[in-house]
Specification:
By secondary structure, this protein is an alpha+beta fold. Helix content is 30%, strand content 21%. The protein contains four helices and four strands. A four-stranded antiparallel beta sheet has the order 3-1-2-4. Helix 3 packs antiparallel against helix 4. The N and C termini lie far apart (41 Å).
Length: 140
């Protein structure tokens, strides 16, 4: 049986009547069998997010995808969240740490850089909020 690679897309949510909050969004494709998805599911994803980076799911993530009953699994880090408070650095750091169990540090840094570049390009004159400091995370 052929083992198909399932993609993971990273990007920024497109704001419209439904999505009213700005967010860093990660979309996992769980299944290729739906008639709604094309070869790689890219068409369905680009309707809702501006895709900045893409990678393929790891074996552990692929096993989780088998248990899903949806085509896509979406995770969002909202910029107006109380832990983020409009800080691009905080949103990127939260996403960086969320992937630490499945993605290499090199790949996470590449994804973070692509997300940052796209955000800065679409938000001219962006500055970090004043008085915001990232917390220090200690290893257990």
């Amino acid at each position: 049986m052929e083992r198909r690679l399932l993609p993971v897309y990273y990007g920024w949510a497109k704001l419209n009547k439904i999505a009213k909050r700005e967010a860093l969004t990660v979309v996992f494709l769980n299944d290729f069998t739906s008639p709604r998805t094309n070869k790689d599911g890219y068409d369905g994803v680009t309707r809702y997010i501006d895709v900045c980076a893409m990678r393929y799911q790891t074996d552990a993530e692929r096993e989780d995808a088998k248990l899903c009953n949806r085509i896509y699994t979406v995770y969002s880090i909202f910029m107006d969240d109380k832990h983020i408070r409009g800080s691009l650095a905080a949103a990127l750091h939260a996403n960086f740490m969320a992937d630490k169990n499945n993605v290499s540090e090199k790949d996470r840094k590449e994804i973070m850089e692509k997300l940052k570049t796209h955000y800065i390009a679409t938000h001219r004159g962006y500055r970090e909020p004043r008085g915001y400091q990232l917390s220090i995370e200690f290893e257990d």
